[in-house]
Amino acid sequence: MTLKEDLVRDHVGLQENRQARRYFAKFERILDNLPRIAGEMEARGKLDRVELAAVSTHLTALNRTFRALSHKYLMTGRDTGVFLGSLTVDRHASGFPVLRELLSMASDAAQAADALTRLPAADDLKEAMIATIVGERRIPTDLQYAMSQRLYLDELRNGDLFWPRNDVQIETLATEDARYLLHWSAWDGQRNLPVIWLMQIEDNGRRPLPQDFARLARVQGHLMAQALPDLKLVTVAKGFDDDFEGLHPKRLLRLTVGPMYSSAFTLQTEGLGAVLEAARAPAGEDWALAWTLETLKSKRVEKEKAGWFSTVDKQVWDLPGLEGPEAGATHTERAAILPERVYQAMTETAAAGFSDVIKYVVGGGRLWRAEE
């Protein structure tokens, strides 16, 4: 069996209406908690204020993408006279929708404005549904389907969603020494996970980077091409430092959201299967989400010869200990977001492999960091 066939085998369509609704309800709760976790990381100094705002932008876009998909597949498993298909989820590697779903959504977005002209307004659809229920005494599934697609296309038209590739944006950190934050994101098609990147740079160019459109376009193209999951942070940072004279990366972060584990939707690995089984949590509480933040920092700058008569500044990266060079990062923080009942089961079963994982617990309308 080829790798491609093996990957596809791990993909499953959510073909029942109740199953699809439970999936989206679960992710709605998960995603609603992520900005609070990012805020807690800012309070601990893992993110600065501008980085937190950038991460929140990408997390909000991710939430909108799930909301759009929930509208698209609202009528999954219902007889509407139209073949709806079903949301395809990676049940082994991520628990998230597969990349193909986002590519299809991006294609739909390009045609959303035209498609909306062929659909009645939302208020007209509501009135027609009421008339069908009251006058014909039947469930208007065809109209419900039209409404779900109307809501889906409206979300796409409004924009600001998490697409397969989300281009580099630039924020000014300090004008006096020309420091900027670059941030971008992508849907990792190998693992089917959203990944957010942030890079702080210093600019010694003659024109400020935001106003140097040709140079900015090169920077954006370079970074998007490097947004690959198997590249070490130090490889990305060194490549940028080498390719752009006058631009000096000082800090690079990669935030991977997921995998999501759930006894209802994924095949469990890494000891979480036993934890979720022991938790016996009710629907909506039987999940755990992984969250990994990799950070690379510049330790100092050294001069390197560039030709016979000139030198250039090159970053020396902070790669402490034995694991730093291997991981290609200064620090890697692994975290898990868990409902309270799942966290209790994890502590009671003493599941292996989680001693160095920071645990954020959700329960009773609160979120807190568990103390070991």
How would the blueprint of this fold be written?
Layout: H1 3-9, E1 11-14, H2 17-43, H3 49-72, E2 87-90, H4 99-110, H5 112-117, H6 122-136, H7 141-158, E3 165-174, E4 179-188, E5 193-203, H8 213-225, H9 233-243, E6 247-262, H10 272-279, E7 287-305, E8 311-317, H11 323-327, E9 331-339, H12 340-349, E10 358-363, E11 366-369
Parallel strand pairs: 9-10
Antiparallel strand pairs: 1-2, 3-4, 4-5, 5-6, 6-7, 7-8, 7-9, 10-11
Helix pairs in contact: 2-3, 3-7, 6-7, 10-12
How would you explain this protein's 3D organization?
The protein is α+β, with helices and mostly antiparallel strands and 372 residues long. 42% of the residues lie in helices and 27% in strands. The chain has helices spanning 3-9, 17-43, 49-72, 99-110, 112-117, 122-136, 141-158, 213-225, 233-243, 272-279, 323-327, 340-349; strands at residues 11-14, 87-90, 165-174, 179-188, 193-203, 247-262, 287-305, 311-317, 331-339, 358-363, 366-369. The strands form 2 sheets. Strands 3, 4, 5, 6, 7, 8, 9, 10 and 11 form a 9-stranded mixed sheet that branches. It has a two-stranded antiparallel sheet with strand order 1-2. Helix 2 packs antiparallel against helix 3 and helix 3 runs antiparallel to helix 7 (141-158). The longest helix has 27 residues, at 17-43.
What is the residue-mean pLDDT, rounded to a whole number?
A: 87
Q: Which structural category fits the helices and strands? A: alpha+beta
Low-confidence stretches: 1-7
Helix content: 40-55%
From N to C, what is the helix and strand string?
A: HEHHEHHHHEEEHHEHEEHEHEE
| CA-based gyration radius | 23 Å
Number of DSSP E strands: 11
Percent of residues in beta strands? Answer: 25-35%
Q: What is the overall silhouette?
A: globular
